[in-house]
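Example (one chain per record):
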Amino acid sequence: MSSPCDPRHAPAGDVSTGLMMIDSRLKAIYDGRTGADPEQQALVQQFTASLTSKDFRELLDGTCTIIFMFMTWLRQAYEAHDKDVVEYVVPDIVTTLRAMPRSVRPEAVPTMAGLVVAAATGLSPNLWRRQYGEWTEEEMNALEATAFLLAEHINRLADDRDFATRLIAEALAGAEAD
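Predicted structure:
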């Protein structure tokens, strides 16, 4: 029986922009810039201000698609070593999100945990989330942080700072070629 949260029913969204934002954060952290770069922050604010509601929905869907792809890769990597992805990834994500109370509202953490578990079990994160209503403003930073943390987790496993970005970029290039 097919689930209403089956990824085949989910819009892919704007994966390219979502990936660009994740990659930008990764590079900033890897370059040792832990504080907010005022120039970078201004560019992001200018970009987000230019988004229409349709563009914003596309970016949300794209970020959820990236989370799904990251969790699919992580599930396969952990299963190859007879390990459960939920056991190894979700506690790390939850612990890190909870350690970020100025950026991530505590009430958004359980939603992100559920979103990651949904993706780990083969469900579309955006369709899973939609069954509980519209996204809230409080969840936006948490969603961005979750995607970033998954990318960083993949990069650490692969021992390659660009692996997660390359993983998605290559999948996009393959999809465009088809």
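Caption: The chain has one domain: 11-177.
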